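[worker-b] picked up task from shared queue
[worker-b] task type: protein-ligand structure
[worker-b] ligand name resolved to manganese (II) ion; SMILES cross-checked against name lookup, match
[worker-b] sequence length check passed
[worker-b] input payload:
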Amino acid sequence: MSFQKNTGPNAWPSIAGLMSEELMTDGAAKIGILGAPMTKGCVTPSDYHLAPEKFRASLKRISTYDLETATDLADLTIKDYGDCDVSTLSPKDGFSPIKSAFSKLTQTHDLSALIGGHNGITRAGVHALDPSLEKVGLLTLDAHFDLRSTENGLMNGNPVTALLEDGLPGHHIAQIGLAPFANTAQMHRTALHAGIHVYALSDCATHGTGKIIEAALKTLNRTCETIYVDFDIDVIDRAQSPGAPGGRNGGFSAAEFWRATRQIGAHPKVRAVDLTEFDPALDVSDITALISGRWFAELLVGYKSR
Ligand SMILES: [Mn+2]
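[worker-b] inference finished, payload out:
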């Protein structure tokens, strides 16, 4: 499906109108997106495979114009690579297809977005950006450490464990928005022992989320040449975002999530991001779908300000 640019006198130019599936000369689009509808291998059975389509549909309802900063995104072109067909694959079997498809984006575009799917896609996304795992940093906005054991195989609860085991240095990882009573003492110990920079929701409340993100990006900037960001939508308060099975009460507000996204999108080393854990089957009145669309708009405004 491709979307026409809306050009009539009452036009509502939308983010969807910036998307193209057409072949473009290299570098013509600064931004690329790829869907990764992975749903097998999750802690609780979910319909994450429906998310890329809902995300794309929501973009038709997001205008290109941000009246608050008088920024128009209408001059951006985004290449949509469609979906990498991993809807029936486990995280183990889906790793190589996602890594290889997403590598093509990260090698071509300034900024590449991987649209999940559950959080199991993050491991492949990080490998796609830097197969050596030596230069890349990982920032997560997530209620969870995702440090469950890999003993019984890969799943959406252990991508960070898997990346540590793959060789990603712990001090190249910063995790923001960790929720109380949604993680274990063992995970917390593992994170601190590995050298992961840990920021709880309460740190964000005390110091301001903007300051915490600034500190995390500064830290990663010192040791990493490039940064991958996992936006796990379950960091948002459950009442504001019903379409995330892992979401809890007391998480980020939707507005806080968008502000954070804009701030992160502005950082020149942020070259690849993912959006994970959106389950459209749980969504109410398209609330989380619209959060995902606005998330992308915020990312683009951040990118444009570089
Ligand atoms: Mn997660």
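[worker-b] attaching auto-annotations
[worker-b] The longest strand covers residues 226-232.
[worker-b] releasing lock
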